[in-house]
Fold:
Amino acid sequence: MSTIRTIVRHAVAAALLVAPALAAAQGPASTGTVTDGVNDLAWQVSVNSGAFFNAFLVDPRPGVWEANSPGNYQWIGAARSGSQQGGVPDGAARFAYTYRTTFLGTDLASVTFRCAVDNVVRSITLNGVTVDASCGTFHFGALGTLSGINAGLNTLQFATAGDGVTDGLLVDFVAVTTTPEPASLALLATGLLGIGVAVRRRRAA
Structure:
């Protein structure tokens, strides 16, 4: 019995080693979730290749846009209104925007996301590599996946374009896939295997 208890303790210890790694693997922040009430502190934006600055929470949200879900995701833009001086509501891509966020990729294998844009998305890149995904117009499109995530700092960018009247971006990271450290997995597997062997021997006796 003492042998089984010892093995169980080792297995629990291994599980506790794995758990912090899983908890730390949060992935990037959805738009509008890290804010001061006006700006998104996790996302920056550049207009027509200008300097980056913290994106704004767009308010009021145009009625044709996907509804916000405060705490989960909200629309962001390069201005509080989402509009730029000189904007004309004709759908022309006269303003180019680059939205970016950074995140640590510790123990992350992939991240699943969905996004919406007004007016169009031109590209999505992770660490300079094009992501094979796109955004829906006004409403969420199909799910996309971020892979090839670095263990250290990662930079995710959405290049969009708009006519300068209520332009914005909405990104929701819906799931992450983690990769626990091999040593922790090995320890956990050894503990579980030991439990199985001990239980089998006890039954045989």
About this structure: Residues 4-25, 183-193, 195-199 have pLDDT under 50 and may be disordered. The helical segments are 2-24, 182-204. The longest strand covers residues 108-118. The first helix runs from residue 2 to 24.
